[in-house]
Specification:
Blueprint lengths: L5 E7 L14 E2 L2 E2 H9 L7 E7 L5 H9 L3 E5 L4 H12 L1 E8 L7 H13 L1 E2 L11 E2 L3 E3 L21 E3 L1 H8 L5 H6 L2 H5 L6 E3 L4 H6 L3 E2 L8 E8 L15 E7 L25 H12 L10 H8 L5
Helix pairs in contact: 3-5
């Protein structure tokens, strides 16, 4: 099923970096790191347009020049209020929904972006174990793969760093932005929505095959009339956000079905990718990604994230 609106990917990029200045345009095996991101995102089947979103600071002039030379749309806005920058980009380009991607993720899997958009377009089909009617469909406002459940050991990840996908309804983003009130909200773009998850219909998809098959994990607002008896609050295990070099404490509000908790927590993984980093924060990250790409024997965009992890990356114990 196709999304009704114009689907856009907003790639967040900047030249300033505390640990690796200029990393997004740093040559990586013969071409700028940002070019890898754009080449992979351009392979998404469900995306209509891509915009690189940077600041109006002179430091970021090279990013605009890079985009102009390649006929890629570039939007420039406030340096510190990144959330406002996204809001203005939405107004300029009319995306609905939009996907947020970090510019320091040169191996982002276009298949994950398409998966998130498919879930957004078709709704969240839930199994009866969650207390919803079998086969019922909920329209999601946000689809993400960045959350981790309360029952998972701290620090676990459903996907490696550098594979984060967030799909937002434009109206939902505008509504949330109007309520943001801290510097952290404005800097980290999506943090507010996870801290106030009870107010939004959020679906978290995971790398666990069984959980993906039944799509367990809709985070429903309080007062929902879809068979949810109550709402349970808990602290999410830190998931982190690429490009920021830190972990952020998110709040989770998970739906609890009539008759007790679901038989499996939405993020109880058979796989744990906390030790694998496919984003670039440091020189060490950059060199490791360069080594991975150097071992590829076909175009980099033909490798999905599992192939990169299983066949090309040394998994940390």
């Amino acid at each position: 099923m196709a999304v009704a609106g114009r689907v856009g990917v907003i790639v967040q990029a900047r030249m300033r970096s505390r640990r690796l200045p200029g990393k997004v345009l740093r040559p990586l095996n013969g071409k700028p790191l940002l070019q890898y991101v754009l080449e992979r995102v351009s392979r998404c089947a469900r995306v209509d347009s891509i915009v690189v979103c940077t600041s109006t600071e002179p430091d970021d002039d090279p990013i605009e020049a890079f985009c102009l030379a390649r006929r890629i749309s570039c939007f420039r806005g406030d340096h510190d209020n990144v959330a406002k920058r996204f809001l203005e980009a939405l107004a300029r380009f009319g995306f609905d929904p939009f996907v947020r991607v970090c510019g320091d993720s040169p191996l982002i899997d276009p298949g994950l972006i398409d998966e998130g958009l498919e879930i957004y377009a078709t709704g969240c089909k839930t199994s009866s174990t969650l207390g919803f009617k079998t086969g019922s469909t909920r329209r999601c406002e946000i689809v993400t793969n960045c959350l981790c459940g309360t029952d998972s050991p701290a620090g676990r990840r459903a996907f490696p760093s550098g594979q984060s996908v967030e799909v937002f309804s434009a109206e939902t983003y505008r509504r949330g932005y109007a309520r943001m009130d801290t510097p952290e909200h404005f800097e980290h773009v999506t943090r507010f929505f996870y801290e106030h998850a009870a107010d939004f219909r959020i679906f978290n998809f995971t790398s666990d095959d069984r959980v993906n098959q039944v799509r367990e994990g809709i985070l429903a607002p309080a007062g929902s009339d879809d068979g949810v008896e109550q709402v349970r609050e808990g602290i999410l295990a830190p998931a982190g956000q690429e490009g920021q070099g830190e972990s952020l404490p998110y709040r989770q509000v998970a739906a609890v079905p009539r008759g007790g908790r679901s038989e499996e927590n939405l993020c109880r993984y058979r796989n744990d990718y906390a030790g694998i980093k496919l984003s670039v924060d440091t020189r060490g990250d950059f060199d490791r990604i360069a080594e991975v790409i150097g071992r590829m024997d076909r175009p980099h965009w033909e490798y999905n994230w599992r192939e990169i992890v299983d066949d090309l990356c040394a998994v940390s114990p």
